[in-house]
Design a protein that fits this description.
Layout lengths: L2 H23 L12 H17 L3 H19 L7 H26 L3 H22 L2
Helix pairs in contact: 2-3, 3-4, 4-5
């Protein structure tokens, strides 16, 4: 084997080792990770709201909206522990939140920060409406 062939072989072996090492570093989300509680999800929404409203750029706003959306998604995975009527009311509220988030996405796609903030503010009103109905 000449030096060039040996170096190529060594290079490809080294590359494979690096790739295998990197794949071991990648984390795979745990499919059975615990779902946050409703309280934790609502606190996450609240924690993302004010920084989003204070944002001065669409990029900054989008970062906080992503946190808000993640907390909302967590809240939709929770089974509300109440009566059947309360569970239905909770599901109704989460459906309104999802619809509002779709409207927020459409507004953000237009690049209008002020309009996007108004849509986000309307989601706060939805959250507050259902919070009053379901708070125990």
């Amino acid at each position: 084997m000449n030096q060039v062939t040996g170096l190529k072989k060594l290079g490809s072996v080294g590359l494979m080792a690096v790739l295998l090492g990197l794949s071991g570093c990648a984390s795979v989300p745990n499919a059975t990770a615990p779902v946050p509680t409703i309280k934790q999800s609502m606190q996450g929404m609240k924690g993302a709201l004010q920084p989003a409203m204070d944002s001065t750029t669409m990029a900054e706003f989008a970062k906080h909206v992503a946190q808000f959306k993640a907390s909302t998604a967590d809240a939709t995975r929770v089974i509300y522990s109440g009566t059947a009527a309360e569970q239905a009311k909770y599901a109704e509220g989460m459906t309104k939140m999802k619809m509002g988030l779709a409207m927020l996405d459409a507004t953000m796609a237009k690049g209008d920060l002020m309009a996007s903030k108004q849509v986000l503010k309307s989601l706060l009103a939805v959250r507050d409406e259902y919070h009053k109905l379901l708070k125990k």
